[in-house]
Design goal:
CATH architecture of one domain: 3-Layer(aba) Sandwich
Distance between the termini: 48 Å
Helix content: 25-40%
Strand order of the largest sheet: 2-1-3-4-5-10
Structural class: alpha/beta
Shape: globular
């Protein structure tokens, strides 16, 4: 009998990567988009559980518009808190685990070292607070859960920093990028592989240490350093053809409605110890994403 892995948020960056990673003949991955399932609607969630009878649920659905959340807080909390709570309660009734994706934005970024899972959370804005509330709802509703915090997600799908740099780099001769915010760029494919590894470990009958984990790419860099590497690699393969200058600026020169954490670096020691997962070198993952963009014709 096939085990069904149900994935919500299947049209997002990570959701697409999870669905695309369907690993073996005896595991079925079913992806549901927002149009397929309103994760805040308990009746719809119950109907989806009855239809697909999942063995594991992975929640990749989220409200991720950081600045917009300040004026759209009801919707942000509905999706990021009520949604995970509804899913976790359904998982508890069905006696299956939930793997839920969270964010570095639960921290305020004032630490001078990478954040561990034991560090105190202190979100700076509505987005971070709504994601932290979702974490708490999952923990309260379900014992068998994984909360995976990650940072600076990118892929060849959706809207993200890598694609923005490529688009601007094709149109401009110079870019200014903040250099006083540091974190770990993380490919959606890498996140999907980690979630799938944990899922398959559970489905194989091996014990799983439930709880909160951090996963992100290395080395930790500033947005400016990330941008420089993106431009350099893109130029090398012809995705960007002109000469482009990238200038570092402080975040004070690039004001946003919500302050971003100055330090988004996450320690991945716990997940390495419990699941034998090493952080990806984002520079290598970036190569694959840029080649995917090139092959998709997103160049001039």
């Amino acid at each position: 009998m096939n085990s069904v892995i149900l994935v919500t948020g299947a049209n997002g960056q990570v959701g697409r990567s999870i669905v695309g990673s369907a690993p073996s003949a005896n595991v079925s991955v079913v992806g549901l988009t927002r149009d397929d399932l309103d994760i805040t609607n308990s009746r719809m969630v119950a109907e989806a559980f009855a239809k697909y009878k999942p063995a594991v649920l992975i929640n990749a659905a989220a409200y991720t518009a950081v600045d917009k959340a300040e004026s759209d807080s009801i919707q942000a909390y509905t999706i990021n808190e009520t949604g995970p709570e509804t899913l976790a309660q359904a998982c508890a009734r069905a006696k299956i685990p939930l793997l839920h994706i969270s964010t570095d934005y639960v921290f305020n970024g004032s630490s001078n070292r990478p954040y561990t899972e034991l560090d105190e959370v202190q979100p700076l804005g509505v987005y971070g607070r709504s994601k932290e509330a979702g974490e708490q709802a999952v923990r309260k509703s379900l014992t068998e859960h994984i909360i995976l915090r990650t940072s600076w997600v990118y892929s060849h799908d959706g809207a993200n920093f890598v694609k923005t740099m490529i688009r601007l780099g094709q149109d401009r001769a110079e870019l200014s990028v903040v250099d006083d915010q540091v974190g770990g760029p993380t490919s959606s494919k890498g996140i999907a592989q980690v979630l799938m590894k944990i899922t398959l470990q559970y489905l194989s009958g091996k014990p799983v240490e439930w709880g909160t984990y951090h996963y992100s790419g290395v080395p930790h860099v500033s947005w400016y350093e990330f941008a420089e590497e993106i431009i350099a690699q893109a130029h090398e393969i012809g995705l960007i053809t002109g000469r482009l200058k990238v200038t570092p600026i402080p975040s004070s020169q690039f004001p946003t409605p919500v302050e971003r954490p100055k330090n988004s670096s996450l320690s991945t020691e716990k997940i390495a110890e419990n699941f034998n997962v090493d952080p990806e070198d984002w520079r290598e993952s970036l190569q694959q994403v840029l080649h995917n963009l090139l092959n998709a014709g997103q160049h001039r």
